[in-house]
Amino acid sequence: MAKSFAVIGDPIDHSLSPNIHSAAFRELHLDASYIAYRIPKGELEEGIEGLKKIKIDGFNVTIPHKIDMMKYLDKTDESCSLIGAVNTVTNKDGVLKGYNTDMDGFLDPFKKKNLTITNKKVLLLGAGGAARAIVAGFAKEKAKSITIANRTLENAKKLAEFSEKIGLNANAIDIVEAKNMAKDFDIIVNATSLGLKNEPSPIQLEGINEKTIVYDIVYMPINTDLIKRAKEKNAIIIFGYEMLLGQAIRAFEIWHGIEAPYNAMKKALLGGF
Ligand code: NDP
After folding, report:
1. What is the chain's Cα-based Rg?
2. CATH number at residue 33
């Protein structure tokens, strides 16, 4: 029987996920479809009932439902309970199981490029939902320490507490303080939404070198101001689309139990820009 999948969220019109997954179905000749389904905030429960009625096989969850969705799961994978948010769900005869593929998606480019995280000093800009998955990733890969810089210091402090709890040394600072600190770190990650509207990078990159890794998880535009500055310094760059692709690949493998067609999915993703 044909399988059906969806991504739920609001706004959802510009989601790249239908393109990425449909390309994978075509590549592997799978009898499956993937649609974008708008569910406004406050209508999640009815939305999920609707998806169960049509016997959806699985779905992705994006803003604003990643945390609320936890309430409607029957089972949770470890990734999901650790991070406290869900972005991928399987439906087996009405039993919903949640996963969070943001952490694996974030780590995927490091693995693909053979870049080590163990013992590295990390500067993380941002303390929202994505930042939490990223902290879990750095803890798993045994980074040396993480400095979390955020506009709202309180949120950075909470995330630093989470980090310490899962075994990664952390401290919290105001993002303004981080402005000239880049040179003190091996890995710099932007997980704020700054860049989406072409805002200037919140930090300078003076003193970094070609061994410094600069990772911007903002994927639209591809070349954010932070990425452009990192290129000028010949740093090692990881683009936001690489994380997006990584999380989609992990979701595909959870749903279908077979290896995802990386190149076809990448091509579809880059064609969407
Ligand atoms: P959240 O809303 O949970 O967090 C937003 C973060 O950005 C907070 O740290 C917030 O700080 C900060 N921020 C927002 N506006 C400003 C501003 N004007 N100045 C300084 N800081 C600001 O969002 P997510 O964590 O879910 O997503 C963050 C970004 O990451 C988004 O752009 C999203 O598109 C991208 N993303 C990319 C993924 C990928 O696969 N490449 C996956 C997931 C997300 P404060 O705490 O002060 O509000």
Report:
1. 19
2. 3.40.50.10860
CA dihedral 135, 141, 147, 152 (to 10 degrees): -10
**Short-list 12, 2, 17, CA closest to 251:** 17
- Ligand 1 centroid, distance to 142 Cα (angstroms): 24
Centroid of ligand 1 to alpha carbon of 249 (angstroms): 22
Question: Looking at ligand 1, which atom is closest to the CA of residue 132?
Answer: 25
- Domain limits at 162? 104-238
What tens-digit pLDDT sequence spans the chain (273 residues)? 899 999 999 999 989 999 999 999 999 999 999 999 999 999 999 999 999 999 999 999 999 999 999 999 999 999 999 999 999 999 999 999 999 999 999 999 999 999 999 999 999 999 998 999 999 999 999 999 999 999 999 999 999 999 999 999 999 999 999 999 999 999 999 999 999 889 999 999 999 999 999 999 999 999 999 999 999 999 999 999 999 999 999 999 999 999 999 999 999 999 877
* For ligand 1, atom 46: residue with the closest CA: 152
0.90 cut: is pTM over it? yes
Interacting residues of 207 by C-beta distance below 8 A, sequence separation 6+: 182, 183
* 95 and 182 in a common domain: no
Are residues 183 and 234 located together in one domain of the fold? Answer: yes
Q: Whose CA is nearest to atom 21 of ligand 1?
A: 151
Residue nearest to atom 4 of ligand 1 (CA): 128
* C-beta of 52 in contact with ligand 1 (< 6 A): no
